[in-house]
Write a structure and sequence with these properties.
Blueprint: H1 2-9, H2 24-37, H3 39-59, E1 65-73, E2 76-87, H4 92-158, H5 164-198, H6 222-232, H7 234-255, E3 260-270, E4 275-285, H8 294-360, H9 366-401
Antiparallel strand pairs: 1-2, 2-3, 3-4
């Protein structure tokens, strides 16, 4: 039995980081599909396009009015015809256009933020699915080894070299693995459906398994991430556009103290006298109730601008905290991945190999062999879990910052 047991440990997979292998091709295809088909992204884009169409509307003069009238006071009969045009006080239309421009720019940032958020969710689901596939593979190989161990224990028990409890313990661990594999299969199907939802597919549509997962190194040192937030984050830029809109709204509210005008030009024809004439009028809208209308409009605009500023401060603090949290998670996962890859897993493999060799000659009991196998299994699962958590943290950082961290 000794050659058989020693050979089995060589079948144990050595999962490493494989930094030289790139898996972004398949993930990039999914990201491109999400950008093209995700309904949240498409809705945000349409809102942006809609807001841009508002700008020329608010910068244009109000529609003119055509005037046609007839007056009959016998023997005098008079025909009137003409047009009137409302003309806002100079500067009001320009300010309305600037406000609409800020709204459109904010919608553009909202569109970019929505796109980044959807891509980050897709990447997190993809990395979770990758972990599930790796975990299923690791547990499947553990099950294969346990079945070999069970066969070995049964053979040793049949000749009186081991106790029956060794066989029963191996069978128990196999049953526990089957339960864990069932849970992982359910999670795999749920993640499969979630990714298809993001891609605007039917939940049961086929989805190719994820490829190898490359370890993503941070491009910026932690001290640079806060500066990158100010430069690139659409979440922050969108709120800054709200603040700029508040400034323009205050300026427009102050312009409401000035009157608007209406120019009225009419032609007149007297049928009885056979004479023609014309009439020109200038109507002025007087802000007579400024104390309860225009003044309160300015107060409203000032309060709205202050609210936008406080929301900007709160959002900046929230984003800085989220950056720090995800950075801490990425740094922790980086350390654990290197530790597991460079020390813990190789040591666990050597421990298992030694336990297998000793069990074959009766120097250690079956429980020691089993614990060595399960320890290596958990270390392998932890390695894949930490690698996944690192990539998820990087994806979340990219969603916050607007570019690769």
């Amino acid at each position: 039995m000794k050659p058989l047991i020693l050979g089995l440990v060589l079948l144990w997979p050595w999962w490493c980081c494989a930094e030289g292998l790139s898996t972004q091709a398949s993930l990039e295809r999914l990201v491109e599909e999400a950008r093209e088909r995700n309904p949240d992204i498409q809705a945000a884009r349409r809102r942006w396009e809609s807001s841009r169409a508002v700008i020329p509307q608010v910068q244009t003069l109000p529609d003119p009015k055509l005037i046609v009238g007839y007056k009959d006071m016998a023997p005098q009969r008079e025909l009137m015809y003409g047009a009137s045009q409302e003309v806002p006080f100079p500067g009001k239309l320009r300010l309305k256009g600037e406000i609409a421009s800020r709204d459109a720019e904010r919608m553009e940032q909202d569109y970019r933020a929505t796109e980044l958020a959807v891509v980050a969710r897709l990447k997190e689901a993809y990395y979770d699915l990758h972990y599930v596939h790796d975990a299923i593979d690791v547990l499947g190989k553990t099950k294969q080894l346990l079945e070999e161990f069970e066969a070995t224990a049964t053979a040793r028990y049949s000749v009186g070299q081991s106790a029956q409890q060794d066989v029963l313990r191996a069978q128990t661990e196999i049953s526990r693995l089957l339960a864990r594999l069932a849970s992982l299969e359910q999670k795999r199907q749920s993640l499969h459906a979630d990714i298809n939802r993001i891609l605007n597919r039917l939940p049961a549509d086929p989805l190719a398994p994820p490829g190898e997962l490359a370890f993503t190194r941070l491009r910026h040192v932690p001290a640079e991430l806060n500066t990158l937030l100010e430069q690139s984050s659409p979440l922050l830029h969108g709120q800054q556009k709200n603040l700029e809109r508040g400034d323009q709204t205050i300026a427009l509210a102050k312009r409401e103290y000035y009157p608007d005008f209406e120019l009225d030009a009419r032609g007149l024809h007297d049928n009885a006298m056979k004479t023609d004439g014309y009439q020109v009028m200038l109507n002025v809208k007087v802000p007579l109730y400024y104390a309860s209308k225009q003044r309160e409009g300015v107060n409203e605009a000032v309060a709205g601008r202050e609210a936008a500023y406080q929301e900007l401060v709160a959002l900046r603090q929230e984003l800085l905290a989220r950056i720090r949290d995800n950075l801490a998670q990425a740094e922790r996962a980086d350390k654990l991945v290197n530790l597991l890859k460079g020390a813990i897993i190789p040591q666990s493999r050597l421990t298992l190999a030694a336990a297998q060799a000793s069990y074959a000659v009766g120097k250690v009991d079956f429980l020691t062999l089993l614990n060595s196998l399960l320890t290596l299994q958990e270390n392998e699962l932890e390695f894949h879990s930490e690698l996944t958590e690192h990539e998820k943290a990087v994806a979340r950082l990219e969603g916050i910052l607007g570019e690769a961290p």
